[in-house]
Design goal:
6-stranded parallel sheet, 707 residues, 4 domains, Rossmann fold, alpha/beta, 20 helices, protein biosynthesis, RNA-binding, 17% strand, 41% helix, 5-stranded antiparallel sheet, nucleotide-binding, globular, tRNA-bd_dom
Length: 707
């Protein structure tokens, strides 16, 4: 890998976290795959040699559990879901160069070879551990077959993950008060011999790796805490039948833990792609193996696009495996936030989701959803989906800005210039603005920002709308025809640039625009240099690229969703089993019920910055509502050394008459502000939408500093 700006002369591999072959895809799942597809296409536009690969994750206990419930083999169950995913992704213009699965021959062979290499290099060892066992059903209980209490935070936990609490990876034997998820029987721990990977030996390497790692900040910051706490060695085998066998001597018939073979599928899928197109077209070994290429012995540019719930696997376990076996380390990890629905988490058991097939069945085109998921907030931030917000973004940005400019420009050009307007090149100002957009596009790729890719396009379209409005070519046609033709040529040049730069986000719509421009070949083959070139094609009569989403349509969609959720909740209330969402998860998304709590920021501040905040204990001496303000209260607050007036939005949430004598926490060095004619000198701190006032546990005096 390098740290040179893209495009580099090394082969790049963009991967997406493997979807778990265990349930339908909804738009929350699609965010990662759309993001990976957008980023891969953007690298292509820059001229970077790129392979975009992924595959279905076939192994693990949830597949085995659900296959048993359906009365089929785990292989049959997982293959069915794999085939559905392989059919669904192209419907959203997510076009992998290769989409494999972890149970195929290529991944099985590579996984066993890599495990042998780990063993031969001395990084594996045997250890006696306690494994959950169901004495009534007479079977061992790996991972999702057991649940209980997290030993670290006390929350309910599954066998390999504290999914409802601290999110830590859990080793076999760590869950307290174990219980079988199959029978509901209390489990007991029995001693078994398992294989361990000595991850702790790689702590120094991993610290350096995180210093080098590019991508989103959460992928660098989160794993540092685990390293600082002390890395634990990793149990890489399980007591079950479904999975890839531990190679060579295996007297206990153990299989490899799913998270051993899952990331190796990235390599296997790349290898399958090379075997299909030939090593001259793409050399998988030059990308993945150190020393395979004399020109680039460190390997290629590996970019992982994942959900933030699997950061630990991709920044601790996986790079340690790669380093131990002389493979190239990842250059970047892009970890996405989750997608919520109207501010709440998706729930598959309550049918509270917008399903991938449902979106298409409603007649919507995939590209507007791609645009929404890619540009609605930073990649590592959570994105809230609602039909209202979706309609607003489509109507305002795709229809009102991008579509409006393209249609009015190309329609005017087609009607007034039979073969298109003629000029030697775009005018200097327009050419400079296109160059600026191309530079913004390249910067977005190097910043790993799919949102900024969209901003480059919408910004160029806004410029185009302003340009055509300012020059009014319809007024120039009769009086200054040459000037009118120059203006419209500039507009068509802008449209061509938009077609090229918009291809990663809206590939199908951009190809349609390319055809309307009469440009040769396919926009999918065009690099950003084509955006700088003037238009040369014969224009066809344009049609509008994007459709307005009407208010009535939004109301209808909301009614359908609410009715579906109500029916599912009614069924759930009648279900004595109390089944939850377990087993419906995809590893790159959070598919369980989530509260409305905002995610903790990954942007850290230093202790010195914290010390700059002067936070004090205060006591409210008087409170009075401010006339004309629905929410504001004027507070007189004793801060020990002085008494201040502070305005706070508490009127609708607290009984104003009961506020005096309340102990509060105040940010004392907040800038003064005038609200409804009252100067506010500080800020009272409160939690949540209900303004739960922060106070002290004991009787700290007014003016006491919070440290």
């Amino acid at each position: 890998m390098s740290h040179d700006d893209y495009p580099t002369d090394r082969p790049a591999v963009v991967t997406c976290g493997l979807p778990y072959a265990n349930g339908d895809l909804h738009i929350g799942h699609l965010r990662t795959y759309v993001g990976g597809d957008v980023y891969s296409r953007a690298l292509d536009r820059l001229g970077q040699e790129t392979a975009f690969v992924s595959g279905s994750d076939m192994h693990g206990t949830p597949v085995a559990v659900n296959a048993e419930q359906e009365g089929v083999s785990p292989e049959e169950f997982a293959l069915d879901w794999h085939e559905r995913y392989a059919e669904t992704f192209p419907k959203f213009n997510v076009e992998f160069d290769n989409y494999g699965h972890t149970h195929d021959e290529t991944n099985t062979e590579l996984t066993q070879d890599l495990v042998r290499d780990l063993d031969e290099a001395g990084h594996l060892y045997e250890k006696e551990i306690m494994v959950a066992y169901d004495p009534v059903d007479d079977q061992y209980l790996p991972d999702r077959y057991v649940e209980g209490t997290c030993p670290y935070c006390g929350a309910h936990a599954r066998g390999d993950e504290c999914d409802e609490g601290c999110q830590r990876h859990l080793e076999p034997g760590e869950v307290e008060d174990p219980e079988s998820t199959i029978t509901g029987n209390p489990a007991e721990y029995r001693e078994r011999t398992h294989q361990f990977f000595a991850v702790s030996e790689f702590a120094d390497y991993l610290s350096g790796f995180l210093d080098r790692l590019e991508g989103t900040s959460n992928a660098r910051n989160q794993p540092r805490e685990w390293i600082e706490q002390g890395l634990q060695d990793w149990c890489i085998t399980r007591d079950m039948d479904w999975g890839i066998d531990l190679p060579d001597e295996n007297p206990q018939d153990l299989v490899l833990y799913v998270w051993v073979d899952a990331p190796i599928e990235y390599i296997a899928s790349t290898k399958q792609y090379s075997e299909r197109v030939g090593a001259d077209a793409f050399d998988w070994e030059a990308a993945w193996k150190e020393g395979a290429s004399d020109e680039h012995p460190e390997g290629g540019e590996i970019v992982h696009v994942i959900g933030r719930d699997i950061i630990q696997h991709h920044t601790i376990f996986w790079p340690a495996m790669l380093e131990a076996t002389d493979h190239a380390e990842p250059r970047a990890v892009m970890a996405s936030g989750f997608v919520t629905l109207d501010g709440k988490g998706f729930s598959t058991s309550r049918d509270r989701a917008v399903w991938a097939d449902e979106y298409l069945d409603e007649g919507f085109h995939p590209d507007p959803l791609r645009y929404y998921l890619a540009t609605n907030g930073g990649f590592q931030q959570d994105v809230d989906f609602s039909w209202e917000k979706f309609a607003e973004r489509v109507n305002t940005e795709l229809v009102g800005t991008v579509g409006n400019f393209l249609y009015r420009s190309l329609l005017f050009a087609h009607r007034n210039y039979e073969d298109g307007p003629d000029a030697d090149a775009p005018s200097d100002d327009v050419a400079a603005r296109i160059d600026e957009a191309v530079d913004e596009f390249a910067a977005a790729v190097n910043d790993y920002s799919v949102r900024a890719l969209g901003d480059a396009v919408t910004g160029l379209a806004r410029y185009g709308n302003e340009y055509i409005q300012r020059n009014e070519p319809w007024k120039l046609v009769d009086e200054e025809p040459a000037e009118a033709e120059r203006v419209i040529y500039d507009c068509v040049a802008l449209a061509k640039a938009i077609a090229v730069l918009f291809e990663p986000l809206a590939p199908e719509k951009s190809e349609r625009l390319w055809a309307q421009l009469g440009e040769p070949g396919s926009v999918h083959e065009a690099t950003v240099e084509a955006a700088r070139e003037g238009p040369a094609g014969d224009l066809s009569e344009p049609t509008e690229l994007f459709e307005q989403v009407e208010d009535e349509r939004v109301e209808d969609l909301n009614e359908k969703l609410e009715a579906r959720v109500a029916e599912a909740e009614s069924d759930d209330a009648d279900d004595e089993s109390g089944a939850d969402d377990e087993g419906d998860e995809t590893e790159t998304t959070d598919d369980t019920d989530m509260s409305d709590i905002e995610p903790i920021s990954d942007d850290r501040i230093g202790f010195e910055q914290f010390q700059e905040l002067d936070i004090r204990v205060g006591r409210i001496e008087a409170a009075e509502g401010i006339e004309g303000a629905d929410d504001l209260v004027e507070l007189t607050v004793d801060l020990g050394a002085e008494t201040r007036t502070i305005v706070a939005g508490l009127k609708q949430l607290h009984e104003v008459d009961e506020l005096p004598d309340t102990k509060v926490i105040v940010l004392a060095n907040m800038e003064k502000a005038e609200l409804f004619g009252v100067e506010s000198n500080g800020m009272v701190l409160a939690a949540g939408e209900d303004a739960d006032l922060l106070t002290t546990y004991e009787d700290a005096a007014p003016g006491t500093k919070v440290k």
